[in-house]
Amino acid sequence: MITRHKYTITTKVYRDWELPQNVKIVYKCVKCRNDTQNNTERVGIKWEAPPCSLRSVTEAEFKSSCDRLIDLLKSTDRIAITNFLRNFFLSINCTKKQRNLSKQVLNVLQHVLLEGPPGIIPLQCAAILQEYGPTPELILDTFNSPSKTKNTAFIFSVILNQGRIFGQLGKLTTQFVRWVSTVGFECVIQTRALGVLIVIASLHSDLLSGEQIYVVSSQIADWLSEASIDQAPNPYSRRSRRLDQPIPVTEIDGAACQDFFTILSLSQYYSDDQLLNIWSFSGLKAWLIEAHLKISNAVLSNSPRARQETRTFLSKSKLALIERTCEYCLRIMDQSERTANRNHWQSSYGDSGPVKVHDQELVEACLVEAISILDVVCKLDSSLIPKLFPALKRVYSRMSEDIGQSRVLCTIVQFYLNHCDAVVYDPQAAFDLLFGKAVSMHYYDHAVAFDIVLLCRDNMKRLCYKTNILEKYFPNLLKILAWNPRTYLPEFFDLLPSFMSTSTSLEVLHILLDLPCLSAALEASHLAAKVASDPEAESRLACVQAFQNPDHRPWFNFILRQQSGQGDTINRLEFLHQLLEDLKHHPRVNICSQGVPVLLRLYFETILEQGDYALFCKLVPVIMERSALLYNTHSYHKEVRNVLQTSLLNIFKQSPSLVVDCKTELMEFVASLRYISGKEDFFSHVVWVIGEYVSIGYDRRNTADIITKYYESLETLLYEVCFQAASHDDQCSPRLVTVMMSTVAKLASRCQDLIPRVLLCLTKISQQHKIIVDDVENKILVSRANELINLLKLPNVASSILSPTPGIENGRWHSDGNVSIPILIKTIKEVVQV
């Protein structure tokens, strides 16, 4: 016999005999762990995909389903109705066709939604109507109030989905305001109607008059201040409580409430006025922004045409609500301080004090909301800033001692950014605490990371122009991206240019290239923390042992640094890569490496647009160095080098004089074979840059002496490459050899003293490749070498062909009768055919 249990599936609790048709129950034998139907251990629930036939329902079949739906909704078989409505919704949703529902079907669905019993069936009807709408055939403007209050949310969602015209929002807005303002009305309807009014204020603000805003604001103010401080009686108990012994609600620390009720006043059961108080606070910020801040700004901007009555009502509603709002929020801030006395309560009541973990989370969430509301209030009335600022400073002082509530600190920083100028306050200490210690400790906390990233993005201009926070703490902020690479890439794509300045651009490039390494280091530190917290746990990963080794601490300290300005990079960076070798295939590291090329392209676009020549001179050596020093993850090297080589070409195209000012680094790079192995494409681009831009046409400083030095570096390397080909060692690709031959030929065409040496070099290469193997690749190399040799035998022609003037791409030489292009073309033909 199978034991019956409850299981939650998509927020709905089913028993074994109530499971939907598309759910399979998986049982495994306790002993052998094989699938069976004759044991008492349930180990999982599997969902079957909906039948593919739903995607190809014909119009005739769909019409038949509509007829069956009408008949089925009149029956009492709730399970059959639920299953059919689910498939009916999929037949509307999973198709590109526009399904047509008859007026009769819409009326039946509307009737079930308005008059049906609470449960999943009205929810499914609402989902079908929302998916089908908006449509003029559905009209929901004739009911006074829903007869089934639990279906209110479903009904209002359909109304909002119908929109302004089809949903008759103009008519219903007055009704919603009347429901909210009526004393003693259904609590559920009032709360839902308030939510709808907030949405209307956001999307259709012109539907709300100044008088209606005043009425709703006054009602919210009353709900915030007039809730009872006594607990509601147990609605499930038959015993009546004596009226002379009311039980007060308690504070967050367990003490009896002595002041007015707030969302932080705890009770076992809540009365309607207390629930309205909680709902009002939950929607207060949105109402202040949509119905006061935005509408007031719109009225002020159109003040010549705005009615005096509207402005008067807005002023009255703002005064009615702001005073109660400030009292309520300051009361929440006072209540939150009671958690600071937790140690006192624990010493009085034993190890388990009255403050619980979920209570701490409630306090943090309410404190964040209260400070955000005060921020909006100060935007509405700037005269309140000096009065509210001391309370914010008191909360910040408490937060600075305990960094555990970083979301509260983030909200305080937002308040400081908006209003610190009004009281001449320097918030630098709060900035340092949040972007330094808080980010470093809580980068893995999804809520904290989300708040900080949004704070940076929404206040990017202010942080850039008024502070140096983003330039100072970008290594710390990038930890959020390294830990959540899939989540925050678009946000950091917006933030990246704000990290860059003349002093930080090189460090930004280094840390972008090391972002997968940073992700691996964070993972290693996280694993090491788990091992440290659990003495019995052991990690066999070498990276965790390396992180715990004090001798390796300097490398990890650098990659996990909080601030910039501690050096662009470090020596023996390759050693750090080796320490983290175990994590190169970790999913987080691989995803992080996929986002680096995107950020690098934006980085170089910003550099080319905003950078100066001095920055380019520093950047070129770094690009060449880091092309050979990358963390070894899957396909990361290839993608990053493609970005680096393309960006290098763009930099030299914009500033060709770099071949003179960076000649030492370029010569060292092309003079060594170690930069070729596995990096031929990047090396080929550097060689091409030398052959293209080492010319007096781009910079007068490209003298014969500089051209000769470049040639000597390439000549030595070219001989070494040919020697490797002769000895059948690691051979370079024919493409690289061809680029090198073309480059030395170009240099010889600009300094004719080099022509004999280049002819000798090319002749040796041609003869050597004739001897090695008679294949297609060697034939191409020999042909290319012979073409260059024949060109260099005619120095004047070679100079015109291999070293044209920089502006030749933009000229119309074919129409100029004074140039000798036709002669050159004939000469090239003769040279190639020799």
Give a structural overview.
There is one protein chain. The chain has helices at 59-73, 78-93, 103-115, 120-132, 152-166, 169-181, 187-203, 210-225, 272-301, 308-336, 342-349, 357-380, 385-401, 406-419, 428-442, 446-458, 460-466, 469-483, 489-499, 505-513, 515-533, 542-548, 553-559, 573-579, 587-610, 613-626, 636-654, 658-661, 663-670, 680-693, 704-726, 734-750, 755-772, 776-792, 795-802, 821-833, and strands spanning 6-9, 12-15, 23-27, 42-47. The termini are far apart. Helix content is 63%, strand content 2%. By secondary structure, it is mostly helical. The longest helix is centred in the middle third of the chain and has 30 residues, at 272-301. The model is unreliable at 1-54 and 342-354 (pLDDT under 50). The chain contains 36 helices and 4 strands.
The rounded Rg comes to 37 Å
Q: Strand order, main sheet: write it out.
A: 1-2
Proportion of strand residues: under 5%
Which parts are unreliable, with pLDDT below 50 for 5 consecutive residues or more? Answer: 1-54, 342-354
Shape: elongated
Oligomeric grouping of the chains: single chain
Structural class: mainly alpha
Helix content: 55-70%
The main pleated sheet reads as:
2 strands, antiparallel
Q: How many helices?
A: 36
Strand elements, count: 4
Distance between the terminal alpha carbons, to the nearest Å? 95 Å
Q: Give the overall pLDDT as a whole number.
A: 81
